[in-house]
Amino acid sequence: MKYYAKDYEGFVAVCDSDILGKKFEEEECVLDVSEKFFKGELINEDDIKLLFMEELNFILFGNNIVKIAEEMGLVLEKEVKEIKGVKHAQVYCIRGE
Description:
By secondary structure, the protein is an alpha+beta fold. Helices cover 24% and strands 37% of the residues. The chain has a single domain (3-91), classed as uncharacterized conserved protein from methanopyrus kandleri domain like (uncharacterized conserved protein from methanopyrus kandleri fold like), CATH 3.30.1860.
C-alpha cells in the first residue's frame, strides 16, 4: 500500500492512495479526500512510520493509514471516526512553553 503525504505549515495530511480523489457521504457527514488537499508525495509504509516519528500533527484518511497510527500508539480506536467504512483520525500535539 502507498500513501500520499502533503506537508502544510503545522501539520501533515496523509491518505491511503486508493481513496485519493473520492468523496464519501453518510447522513450529514462528508469525507472529501480531494487531490488538491492530499496529493503530495507518494510514499511507502516505512516512510510513513518515519514521518510519524518526526512530525507532531496529522490529518489521516483511510483504513490503512489509521491502522498504522493506531499500531504506533498515536491514535486510540475510540478517537477514530468512520464514514461509509473509511476511517479518519486527527493527531495534534500541543507544546507548552
